[in-house]
Design brief:
Elements: E1 6-11, E2 33-38, E3 44-47, H1 64-84, E4 93-97, E5 100-104, E6 107-116, E7 119-123, E8 128-133, E9 140-141, E10 146-150, H2 153-186, H3 194-227, E11 229-231, E12 236-238, E13 248-249, E14 258-263, E15 268-275, H4 276-287, E16 300-305, E17 313-325, E18 330-337, E19 349-355, E20 360-366, E21 371-373, E22 376-382, E23 388-399, E24 402-407, E25 415-418, E26 430-433
Parallel strand pairs: 4-26
Antiparallel strand pairs: 1-2, 2-3, 4-25, 5-20, 6-15, 6-19, 7-14, 8-10, 8-13, 9-12, 10-11, 12-14, 15-18, 16-17, 16-19, 17-18, 20-24, 21-22, 22-23, 23-24
Helix pairs in contact: 2-3
């Protein structure tokens, strides 16, 4: 490195010049100018007087001015020497990892709404006054459980009357039968005519018809008595009671009164709408034999509830509509989801994931290692000489915290996964190999 030198034109002194001294020496203003050179370390060296042609240099005044200037030049030389010998700062440390190779399957994700497989509005079948409410609001009820009781006394009386009518009809039928039997015996001896026998036969048939009618009336009366006990038709969660005891309700003959409702909980449906582009892509994969159709195969689905970060329920496809909605260009689809813990209620929203491809090998990196540069996604890759390179990538779906990289990376690349804020494009870094993601095997060449 070239040592800095500073030339100062000074008058030639009669005596020695002491740098930093306080004694003043006279100087001859008429003597020719000499030259002092400031070398590294603050030492001064005298040079030969300048040639006459260079006499145009500005002469410095005698006194304290040259001394102060020499001090400034000496200090400047020391600073320059110190800065030139300062060591460069160390390269920042970053954590790098190689892409993980894994067999993955693409999933299409949609927003869906849960609905009950069975839903019943419980209404009164017979009119009357409510006696009791036999369930707790919002509880789980089973098919056959008693929900309401209607005052049964009027219906018991009607049933008793129907029983009497049936007994009378049966007695008349028995009498008509015996008279017909006697008529058949007497007609053989010509004691009675054939006309009388025909009349008795018709009387027996009428008695049987009256008996049948009386039996129907009795069954209707008995049903009304049974309907005074309102039972749960399905198993599920019951709503609140809408009618309290003492209120008069109307039966099915005059607008049945709504008492409560029941919805089934386990299993449960989730309905979602598939856009036309996704439907066409999946249909193409089905024609190519790369994906089974959900019309004839119960393809698996994964469901993520509101507030969750990963799927918590699994189900299977159950139904595809036969046409697209002309107003939204979507296809109504349905999946059935087990709900053993009864944590899902009809009306909830959820995110539905359905398979969108056959399994394939993919390179994956942590999603936190991906940065955004305006409209493109990039990752920072450390080259062999430890310099940083920004690599644009094409992203795929997210799977268990790892992002599929469709284009832009190779298996042997070293991607910065921690310390992105310390990396600068083109600058050197000190890379350290990070551990492979939990549950995965370390890629080839990676250190533990």
């Amino acid at each position: 490195m070239v040592e800095p030198k500073y030339a100062v034109s000074l008058p030639e002194h009669h005596g020695r010049l002491r740098v930093g001294g306080y004694a003043k020496q006279r100087c001859n203003r008429n003597r020719p100018m000499g030259t002092l050179t400031l070398q590294s370390g603050g030492a001064l060296a005298a040079a030969h007087p300048p040639a006459p042609a260079r006499s145009s240099y500005r002469r410095l005044r005698c006194g304290a001015a040259p001394i102060g200037l020499l001090f400034a030049l000496a200090l400047a030389g020391c600073d320059v020497n110190t800065q030139s010998q300062a060591p460069p700062p160390p390269a920042p440390s970053v954590m790098v990892a190689q892409p993980v190779k894994r067999t993955v399957t693409d999933w299409d994700e949609f927003t869906g709404r849960f609905e009950a497989i069975e839903e019943v509005q419980v209404r009164a079948r017979v009119g009357g006054f409510i006696n009791t409410v036999e369930f707790k609001d919002g509880a789980i009820v089973h098919a056959g459980d008693l929900l309401y009781t209607v005052d049964p006394r009027p219906f018991d009386a009607v049933a008793l009357q129907a029983e009497g009518q049936l007994a009378d009809a049966r007695a008349k039928a028995e009498l008509a039968k015996r008279e017909l039997e006697r008529g058949l015996t007497l007609v053989q001896t010509s004691a009675v005519s054939e006309q009388v026998v025909d009349q008795r036969r018709q009387a027996l048939q009428a008695a049987h018809a009256a008996e049948t009618q009386a039996e129907g009336t009795l069954k209707a009366a008995q049903l009304n008595v049974e309907f005074t006990h309102v039972l749960a038709p399905i198993t599920g969660r019951v709503s609140r009671h809408l009618v309290t005891p003492g209120n008069l309700v109307q039966g099915s003959e005059s607008g049945a009164t709504l008492l409560t409702s029941i919805v089934s909980i386990d299993p449960i449906y989730i309905y979602f709408d598939v856009d036309e582009a996704t439907y066409q892509r999946n249909s193409k994969l089905w024609f190519e034999g790369k994906r089974p159709s959900s019309r004839d195969t119960s393809n698996p689905v994964q469901v993520t509830l509101t507030g969750e970060t990963k799927p918590s329920h699994e189900g299977k496809m159950d139904f595809l509509d036969n046409r697209l909605d002309i107003s939204t260009a979507t296809l109504r689809s349905r999946a059935i989801v087990p709900n053993k813990d009864l944590s899902i209620l009809p009306g909830q929203f959820g995110r539905v994931r359905i398979i969108g491809s056959s399994p394939y090998e993919a390179l994956m990196i942590p999603d936190d290692a991906i940065a955004t540069d305006q409209s493109r996604k990039i990752v920072f890759v450390v080259r062999a000489d430890n310099t940083v390179e920004a690599r644009p990538v094409v992203l795929g779906p997210l799977d268990e915290g790892l992002r599929v990289i469709r284009e832009g990376l190779k298996p042997g690349d070293h991607v910065i996964v921690d310390g992105l804020q310390r990396a600068r494009i083109g600058a050197k870094v000190a890379p350290k190999m990070a551990q492979a993601p939990a549950g995965d095997k370390a890629p080839a060449g990676a250190k533990p």
